[in-house]
From TrEMBL:
Residues 9-393 form the Catalase core domain. It comes from the Bacteria. Gene3D superfamilies: Catalase core domain (2.40.180.10). Belongs to the catalase family. Residues 1-29, 374-399 are annotated as: Disordered. InterPro entries: Catalase, Catalase_3, Catalase_AS, Catalase_clade1/3, Catalase_core, Catalase_haem_BS, Catalase_immune_responsive, Catalase_sf. Its EC number is 1.11.1.6. This is Catalase. Keywords: Heme, Hydrogen peroxide, Iron, Metal-binding, Oxidoreductase, Peroxidase. It catalyses: 2 H2O2 = O2 + 2 H2O.
Length: 485
């Protein structure tokens, strides 16, 4: 029974008689271990911070809704997409990637774009970025990639040598590096950037027919980016600039919105398309697979408590609902495990039961116990399956669609290794001013690298994408393309 008498209590509900002075032996101490209120306060304080995320540590979040604007039932049986006009509550978390929890918002970095849809069939998470591609395409390289972006183990300083050494030895990163070093590398605000699911997913309709799908969230505020000098100024003067902008916009009723589009590819096209459609370092041409409108996302409510909602929010690309399934994308396949495992470590094994993560639909399973179990823990109900006591049973009609597999179990690389065409196409799409800023940003980032070998190896990648691209970077670094790598 709750009371509203405004009396301070301990965590176990007992009234606190003195919250200003600890219990001591006499006026000068020492402090008594029997002061359990003091011990509880200090012990809780020591544990107030859950471990920060290894990546995407700093972020901002907001609540909103998603409204279907187009009938896509011929492609997917997902209930939240079942009829035009249907609204689904959702929560989004925007973030930087490489920086720590206290880092500046306006650094050159991809931005996380993670959306949780609270559907009637369970939560569905789209965990993407503000870029349509990624640096690597196999999850086995992910820990090494992130290590290269983090601090040096001896100096604890950011390490350009590691960054460019890794990228120069991983040519598949070139497309994303070009995006990162372009104007799009520093969005003006979270509101003024697109979002992408990045990976390829599979949609299945009510008849069991499947298609491959990619997600594109297009900002209705227009794309705006920051000048590098202004970004640096803001990083010093207001390192929380993007968080503040999002909160204030929603608070004053200027609700940001995005239109969701999808690209649809027939299953059989995956065998003949000129790029591997499951390679997350590549895009699908919109000329080949045009954007199809799906719905509209609106953010209209700020969190009431940052820690409870933004910091404890957990997202996983493996949180599927019927009608949405995985593809053979190797990076996605690794993330299906890694994200949930990170949440079990960081927030706890019962993270999905926290209010921000709890589905709106009923949860019925046989998982019991674990740290911080704060509900009835299943009470005295049956705790195993199969059982003869009326416990929840599987729904065979909700099984994912079957798919064929072939080949030998082996560590196999992607067959397609054209890492240059799409990066070169992107470079050639830029106007002269955009190209100049791109080259300037790259040169500035590479100058601290202490090995010409690394610089020249990376320049060769730029050159293979477009000769002018490589030549201009080389000139900016005072190097000749004739030098041996």
């Amino acid at each position: 029974m709750k009371t509203n008498n405004n009396h301070l209590t301990t965590s176990w509900g007992a009234p606190v008689g003195d919250n200003q002075n600890s219990m001591t032996a006499g006026s000068r101490g020492p402090t008594l271990i029997q002061d359990v209120h003091l011990l509880e306060k200090l012990a809780h304080f020591n544990r107030e911070r859950v471990p920060e995320r290894i990546v995407h540590a700093k972020g901002a979040g907001a609540h909103g809704y998603f409204e279907v604007t187009n009938d896509l039932t011929k492609y997917t049986k997902a209930a939240f997409l079942s009829e035009v006009g249907k609204r689904t509550p959702m929560f989004i978390r925007f973030s930087t990637v490489a920086g720590e929890l206290g880092s500046a918002d306006t650094v050159r970095d991809p931005r996380g774009f993670a959306v949780k849809f609270y559907t009637e069939e369970g939560n569905y998470d789209v965990v993407g970025n503000n870029t349509p591609v990624f640096f690597i395409r196999d999850a086995i390289k992910f820990p090494d990639f992130i290590h290269s972006q983090k601090r040096h183990p001896q100096t604890h300083l950011k390490n350009p040598n590691a960054v460019w050494d890794f990228w120069s030895l991983s040519p598949e990163s070139l497309h994303q590096v070009t995006i990162l070093m372009s104007d799009r590398g520093i969005p003006a605000t979270f509101r003024h950037m697109h979002g992408f699911g990045s990976h390829t997913f599979k949609w299945v309709n009510a008849d069991g027919q499947g298609v491959w799908v990619k997600y594109h969230f297009k900002t209705e505020q227009g794309v705006k980016n920051l000048d590098v000098n202004l970004a640096a100024k803001l990083a010093g003067e207001n390192p929380d600039y993007h968080m503040e902008d999002l909160f204030n916009a929603i608070e004053k009723g200027d609700f940001p919105a995005w239109t969701l589009y999808v690209q649809i590819m027939p299953l059989e096209d995956a065998n003949t398309y000129r790029f591997d459609p499951f390679d997350v370092t590549k895009i699908w041409s919109q000329k080949d697979y045009p954007l199809i409108e799906a719905g509209r996302m609106v953010l209209n409510k700020n969190p009431e408590n940052y820690f409870a909602e933004v910091e404890q929010a957990t997202f996983s690309p493996g949180s599927f609902v019927p009608g949405v399934e995985a593809s053979p994308d190797k990076m996605l396949q690794g993330r299906l495990f890694a994200y949930g495992d990170a949440h079990r470590y960081r927030v706890g094994t019962n993270h999905a039961a926290l209010p921000i993560n709890r589905p709106k639909s009923e949860v019925s399973h046989y998982q019991r116990d674990g740290q911080m179990r704060f509900d009835s823990n299943g009470g005295g109900s049956v705790y195993y399956e199969p059982n003869s006591y009326g416990g929840p049973k599987e729904s065979p009609e909700k099984k994912p669609a079957a798919f064929e597999l072939s080949g030998q179990a082996d560590s196999v690389a992607y067959e397609h290794n054209d890492h240059y065409t799409q990066a070169g196409d992107l470079y050639r799409l830029m106007n002269e001013e955009e190209r100049a800023r791109l080259v300037q940003n790259i040169v500035g980032a590479m100058k601290p690298v202490d090995k010409d070998e690394i610089k020249l190896r990376q320049i060769q990648h730029f050159y293979k994408a477009d000769p002018e691209y490589g030549q201009r970077v080389a000139e900016g670094l005072g190097l000749s393309l004739t030098q041996e790598v």
